[in-house]
Design a protein that fits this description.
The complex is a heterodimer of chains A (116) and B (114).
Chain A lengths: L2 E3 L4 E5 L4 E3 L2 E3 L6 E7 L6 E7 L7 E2 L2 E6 L4 E6 L8 E8 L9 E2 L3 E6 L1
Parallel strand pairs in A: 2-12
Antiparallel strand pairs in A: 1-4, 3-9, 5-6, 5-10, 7-8, 8-9, 10-11, 10-12
Chain B lengths: L4 E3 L2 E4 L5 E6 L6 E8 L3 E9 L2 E5 L6 E5 L5 E5 L8 E8 L9 E2 L3 E5 L1
Parallel strand pairs in B: 2-11
Antiparallel strand pairs in B: 1-3, 3-8, 4-5, 4-9, 5-6, 7-8, 9-10, 9-11
The chains are: A mainly beta (116), B mainly beta (114).
Chain lengths: 116, 114
């Protein structure tokens, strides 16, 4: 079974600084997709970034970028120039194509606090 | 384009009752998935619907059921509620079943069972 592990229950960062959230996963699949979702206090899950396993290039979305290490099964999220609005719970998630269809497997989450 | 909507947003029930939650996907999206989020178990997959058929199911008892209508709207039902069913229930929609499709989430329904 696929598992996703976020080893940092909580992280904090100063406004305008950079922070990296860690995620590792366990799978025997070669083709899969990885996601970072953000869940602010409103509880709305918001997609931050996605990465296709077959792509070697790391995905970026404005201030958000990932460090995808397929061999190490690692998928970390870097947030640059942190803003107060980045404070939220961040979830790493994994999904494979094929028979598992819609199932996203989530990590336990990392609470990010941003200090002014 | 409007996002995923879920109704009601909050619900209080007592043990033994049943409850129905509703989810309207993003226009054009045909796949709807449901997740349960609790502090202890985190986010767990309940089931997924596509073209009015359940395509995948998580490890939940038969008290949890769902359905999808021809307009892709989905409902989930929990019968004989237990205290442990208190949770945030999230619905997510995507264009299709394809694994590369991104799932977009609704705001959730917070269920409290007393």
């Amino acid at each position: 079974a696929q598992t996703v592990t976020q080893s940092q229950p909580e992280m904090s960062v100063q406004e305008a600084e950079t922070v990296t959230l860690s995620c590792t996963y366990d799978t025997s699949e070669s083709d899969y997709y990885l996601f970072w979702y953000k869940q602010p206090p409103s509880r709305q899950m918001i997609l931050v970034i996605r990465q296709e396993a077959y792509k070697q290039q790391n995905a970026t979305e404005n201030r958000f970028s990932v460090n995808f290490q397929k061999a190490a099964k690692s998928f970390s999220l870097k947030i640059s120039d942190s803003q107060l609005g980045d404070a939220a719970m961040y979830f790493c998630a994994y999904r494979i194509p094929g028979t598992s269809y819609g199932k996203l497997t989530f990590g336990q989450g990392t609470i990010l606090t941003v200090h002014p | 384009k409007a996002g995923v909507t879920q109704t009601p947003r909050y619900l209080i029930k007592t043990r033994g009752q049943q409850v129905t939650l509703s989810c309207s996907p993003i226009s054009g999206h045909r796949s709807v998935s449901w997740y349960q989020q609790t502090p202890g178990q985190g986010l767990q997959f309940l089931f997924e619907y596509f073209s009015e058929t359940q395509r995948n199911k998580g490890n939940f008892p038969g008290r949890f059921s769902g359905r999808q209508f021809s307009n892709s709207r989905s409902e989930m039902n929990v019968s004989t509620l237990e205290l442990g069913d208190s949770a945030l229930y999230l619905c997510a929609s995507s264009l299709s079943l394809a694994g590369e499709e991104t799932q977009y989430f609704g705001p959730g329904t917070r269920l409290l069972v007393l």
